[in-house]
Amino acid sequence: MAAVKQNYGEKVLIQFEDFANHNAFDLLARYGTTHLVFNDDIQGTASVVLAGLVAALKLVGGTLAEHTYLFLGAGEAGTGIAELIALEMSRQTKTPIDECRKKIWLVDSKGLIVSTRKESLQHFKKPWAHEHEHVGNLLDAVNAIKPTVLIGTSGKGQTFTQEVVEAISSFNEMPIILALSNPTSQAECTAEQAYTWSKGRAVFATGSPFDPVEYNGKTHVPGQANNAYIFPGFGLGVVMSGAIRVHDDMLLAASEALAQQVTQENFDKGLIYPPFSNIRKISAHIAANVAARAYELGLASRRPRPKDLVKYAESCMYSPIYRNYR
Questions:
Q1: For FRET with 326, which of 29, 97, 239, 318 sits at 20 to 30 Å CA-CA?
Q2: Residue 21 reports pLDDT greater than 90
């Protein structure tokens, strides 16, 4: 890390990818205050999922703080997403983040994370240990917590069983179900299962691509919560503003920009992400929003601030179009 900074300067952006849980959190905490670093597994995943949730609220109604969240999986992705949701909730409601975390529950391999397990938990799970009796499995947790949002980051396929999906659908008109694990074989459930078991009522997105599903004469198109929506635009926004540190508010800015790109036409199909075919336009808007937040936070070093940040972002992007000389 010292050598990279020495060779390339203070403003080189270092992206961490695929580190083991214990290393990922430690490295981000260790270098986040001294280097310009971004962990895609923790922060990129969190930002793209938060964007999907913000968009989904336009379909199901309510604010982030009015919903209850249950995660299956409490590693980098799960805890990273949970923390960013709590952060945005805190920002919207002006409530302390500790209070906001109480709306978010996590299930790991030993069951619901509760306060009686606190002593044996890894440090990144401890903020999510709430007061509750022991619950040993996901189905019991769904029935006990009654979440409106179910998020899978477990890396284990077919864990959102028919009983689980039917349970969450029994007390939600439109349950939000995100089966985020990759590859397709490890997805917590398939699109067909989610729509069939929820009787076509689920707002559904995945980490892996799934084909549209027809249920009762209506075609449902599952969105894909892919980090590639976030990290190119996020990185561009950081670099083009000359930011010297990554701040959580910049991740929130990326989520806001992505959620704003979802059109009514997308919502009508049940999509909570814009089509990936528009990725360059999406990335330019994310970059502009991230850069704007960096300027607001006093973290940007590029002066003067460009008048039109979207146009400036587009001018900084490569266009892989080459003249034909023959």
A1: 318
A2: no
On the question of pLDDT at 324 being above 90, the answer is no
63-68 long-range Cβ contacts below 8 angstroms, 24+ apart? 63/92, 63/93, 64/88, 64/89, 64/92, 65/89, 65/92, 65/93, 65/95, 65/100, 65/103, 67/103, 67/147, 67/148, 67/149, 67/176, 68/103, 68/104, 68/105, 68/145, 68/146, 68/147, 68/148, 68/149
Q: What is the pLDDT averaged over residues 216-224?
A: 94
Residues of each annotated binding site for a divalent metal cation: 17-18, 41
Q: Residue 252, Cβ neighbours under 10 Å: how many?
A: 22
Write out pLDDT tens, residues 47-90: 999 999 999 999 999 999 999 999 999 999 999 999 999 999 99
Binding-site positions read: 17-18, 41, 182, 226
Residues that constitute the known binding site for (S)-malate: 182, 226
Q: What is the 3-state secondary structure (H, E, C) of the chain?
A: CHHHHHHHCCCCCEEECCCCHHHHHHHHHHHCCCCCEEEHHHHHHHHHHHHHHHHHHHHHCCCHHHCCEEEECCCHHHHHHHHHHHHHHHHHHCCCHHHHHCCEEEEECCEECEHHHHHHCCCCCHHHCECCCCCCCHHHHHHHHCCCEEEECCCCCCCCCHHHHHHHHHCCCCCEEEECCCCHHHCCCCHHHHHHHCCCCCEEEECCCCCCEEECCEEECCEECCHHHCHHHHHHHHHHCCCCCCCHHHHHHHHHHHHHCCCHHHHHCCCCCCCHHHHHHHHHHHHHHHHHHHHHCCCCCCCCCCCCHHHHHHHHCCCCCCCCCC
Task: Set out the domains of the chain in order of their start, with CATH numbers.
Answer: 46-224 (3.40.50.720)
